[in-house]
Amino acid sequence: MAILRIVKDGDPMLRKVSRPVEEITPRILTLLDDMTETMHKANGCGLAAVQVGVLRRVVVIEDGDGRLYELINPRIVAYAGEQEECEGCLSIPGVWGITRRPSAVTVRALDRNGNEVEYTGHGLLARAFCHELDHLDGKLFTDCMIRRVRADEVETE
Ligand code: ZN
Hints:
Strand order of the largest sheet: 1-2-3-6-7
Strand content: 25-35%
Number of strands: 8
Radius of gyration: 15 Å
Low-confidence stretches: none
Helix content: 10-25%
Order of helices and strands: HEEEEEEEHE
Number of helices: 2
Structural class: alpha+beta
Distance between the termini: 28 Å
Bound molecules: zinc ion
């Protein structure tokens, strides 16, 4: 596994739309492993492939209980409710802000074996699904930020 360089805000790469994965090759599996390692090293809870310079629809997320979600070609199939919580992004270091997201989000994706999987996330996981899937369409959380939060206001878990 390898730690990959994280693309930072201001790089035009982050505004590009990622392409679907046509075939789950060993290269995609290595990408998933490297993305997870990179996310851990950076103390993040989610990472999209575009953030490591790969324009493919691949996302990794780790929830508050340490469960890892590997999502290939994910899409949101249902959402409900609303939440306004604080968000940050490994590509935008030092910036946190409040966004409005659904409070429950269901995604469908392929796992690393090519099987279709479906997950419903609430709270933090729902936000992570929205945030990471936005990356695949070139969107950043600062696009929908309601207000910025100072670093010393951010709650640490
Ligand atoms: Zn992000």
